[in-house]
Amino acid sequence: MRRDVRIERVLPYPRERVWHALTDRESLSRWLMPTDFVPEIGHAFTFRMKAQPGWDGVTHCVVTELVARERVAYSYRGVARGDKPIACAGVEDERVRSLGRGVFADLDTVLRVTLDDAPAGTRMVLEHVGFEGCKLVLVSFVMGQGWKKILRTRLVQVLDA
User: Is the pTM of this model over 0.70?
Assistant: First the structure.
């Protein structure tokens, strides 16, 4: 069982501006998570957030693809207990929460963003791939909703600044 997340958006901004938001450490930290990202193939970096129930707040990454103003990709790895996606989904039912506690899932995925010109700005395709197995397929649904919200709100705020 496998599921990938794919989100396509046309953003009303020039490609150079979108690329900057994807690859500039400060911009990326503002719309995604604080990071020590450097746009160099092979660079190991992390995204860090406040720890949450079921997750230590650290995502480990390595830049795997980089084509200026066109494509950036990196590994996207972490470990989460089952209560992490349940908490992210806003589930309040204690019976459901108790089912997820103690179930660990190793996230070993790839995040890739591709940019193309579009008549109204820039076409962006975000692909988060590699969710394999029943547990991670469920995680992919939660993360897919999270990506949609982040792209719709926080990325646009950075692009508007």
Answer: yes
